[in-house]
Sequence to fold (686 residues):
Amino acid sequence: MFKKDRIRAILPELEAAAGRGSVRTDEGEILMYSYDAGMARARPEAVINFSSPDHVAPVVRILHKAGIPFLPRLAGTNLSGGTIPLKGGAILNLSRLKKIRQIDTAARVALVEPGVVNMELQRALEPFGLFYAPDPASQKVSTIGGNIGENAGGPLCLKYGVTVDNVEKLEVVTPEGEVMLLSYRDAGPDLMSVLVGSEGTLGIVTHAWLKLLPLPSHIKTISAAFPSADSAMGAVTRIIGAGILPRALEAMDKVSLDAALSGKISPFPPDTEAVLILELDGDDAVKIKTDLEAAHKICAGQGCLAFKAAADEAERAMLWQARKGAYPALARLAPDVLVEDGVVPRPRLPEALRETREIISKYKLTAGLLFHAGDGNLHPNVVFDRRDIQEVKRVKKAGYEMLKSCIRLGGTISGEHGIGVEKRVAMNWLYGKGELAFFHGIKRAFDPAGLANPDKILPVASDRPAAKSGELAGTFVFPAKSALGPEARGIVDELRLRCAAGTPTAVTGLGTRLKHGGEAHGARPLDLRSLSGPAEIDAENLTARVQAGVPMKEFSAQLAAAGFRLELPALAGSVGGLIASKVCPEIRGLLLGLEIVTAEGEILELGGKTVKNVAGYDAVRLLCGSMGAYGVILAATFALASGRDEAAAKFSEPEAWDAFEPSELHRRLKREFDPRNLLNPWLYGK
Ligand SMILES: Cc1cc2nc3c(=O)[nH]c(=O)nc-3n(C[C@H](O)[C@H](O)[C@H](O)COP(=O)(O)OP(=O)(O)OC[C@H]3O[C@@H](n4cnc5c(N)ncnc54)[C@H](O)[C@@H]3O)c2cc1C
Fold:
């Protein structure tokens, strides 16, 4: 059947499921949905407008049966081509699903449909003294569904986490049209967190239960003007390193500031080259005052030209208008803007900044630099004109070099804007074949037919690895895999031998949990206690890497001795065992990276040392609760807080934490990662 006929053939079925007039194939509609806020373009075959979340599953079943690709779309403000239908098919337009169904003030949870605009939710919450933390600069138009699709961040995410940290539960329509309810608290691997940031490639969110927070009693907003962007970045690292946790710590360079002020008189001293916006909140006014004084001293030490508190709400709104309005202001300088989204470990920000500047100058481009500085997240906004082919080439090359620079500095290629189609090729630079194969396994398990937003996130054949591509070739050197210690090498070698012999393995930490007793089906224990030793604490970046066999209590003691802590209750068991068993689901929020070995003996590095990372699927969280059956955890990297924990919360383990009955999706994932069921085989034995 010709492509143009395949929608026509199922049109009556689709309209029966979604309502009369819901399926549009007219030229105007097709053109409108051929582009989004990114640079890619492609035409859908149909646009299906939904009036009820209940219509999504039946429509997806029809499309799945017909083998027609589809993708969910909301406001289309994503900056990576995420809503471009690369293989045609249907756009599922969910933007009319904008009901806030419930605000549960006691449980502090809101139940919303995906089309609710972020800012409208905030407005609805305010009278109840509550707020929803993720606050992307696009929040006046971007939606909760799109924010979930991209795992969006925003200024407040420094203190309150990104979208995934603020979602309690999701109702999801799978690419085969089944309806699932997923929470990160469910026993077993954390499927909910994998869905967040999956850009419509693993399923469609039809309802979301969002975590709400009480509005703080006090908020103080400060602007600090600096004579150079370097000195501003120096202040950022020192503020966080001093144990001050602002609710936001944002930066703008002079180009962005001038664009945002657009002719108005600048409130900053004439030599200002960069401005930090620092915002502190809480219920303890004295603590805020002390932190502000400390931040003032730090900024002064970095040559700050002016450190000024917003006098009233109007001045505060003006500062945020300048920061959040900087992108549209830059967009007025030229017909097009490329917004990059690299992340580096926070202490590497000054280097990242220097390299970004050199790249901009090398390619003779104009760019305003905006930073979620506290998160190490850089947004160079390169302005250009797409009608100038030579300039477009330079912009592309510059963008790629900026991403490579972030990778080289130990960072990642996207902190919040996603990979979509525009950064697919860069996935080859960030990850090795093993990690990419792991991601492909996730995609196949969720979407065996490959119909949900196809050709997004994961490189396709035409995205040649950088070294082989003329356009991308250069002096780029791939960062080496982190050096595993001899004990970890020993575990890997042993697992490879067992893999060759087909010997099932019972992965064993301290033996606190994951008791297999008589049910181990003859699996040989693999004792991970040898993975011990002192944690590698990066005091400036506030992260620590620890081997999986270290008892959590010992790790906590090591951190305390160095003046740091993990914001977790006291837990018994090894680090690896606690992650794998997910006895305390909150562990996911502190976990930045995992080094694992698969059942086939392949070493994978997932995540890393940055606090934000949306490059690829969230395999780190998927492994939380995987109970040793998807891979053996060798080492983990955590985000730390500074200072001693005055009141380490008491924690009572849930009684049924291991009442895990694998679903069909868990089993598919198991088949992808461990096709011979060699790791903890009793869990999937039935
Ligand atoms: C001026 C400007 C400022 C921005 N500032 C920020 C910022 O500060 N922080 C930030 O993180 N981003 C920012 N962005 C990027 C963008 O706004 C975010 O990615 C936003 O989350 C996208 O929401 P949307 O409603 O536009 O979703 P869309 O662009 O329509 O969709 C985004 C992705 O999610 C998928 N998707 C849509 N609906 C669903 C669903 N129901 N279930 C599953 N997947 C779905 C889509 O297929 C797509 O892949 C900015 C963009 C602009 C233009």
Notes: The longest helix spans residues 389-408. The pocket of flavin-adenine dinucleotide is lined by residues 36-37, 71-79, 82-83, 94, 114, 136-138, 142-143, 145-147, 149-150, 152-154, 199-200, 204-205, 327-328, 416-417, 453 (CB under 6 Å).
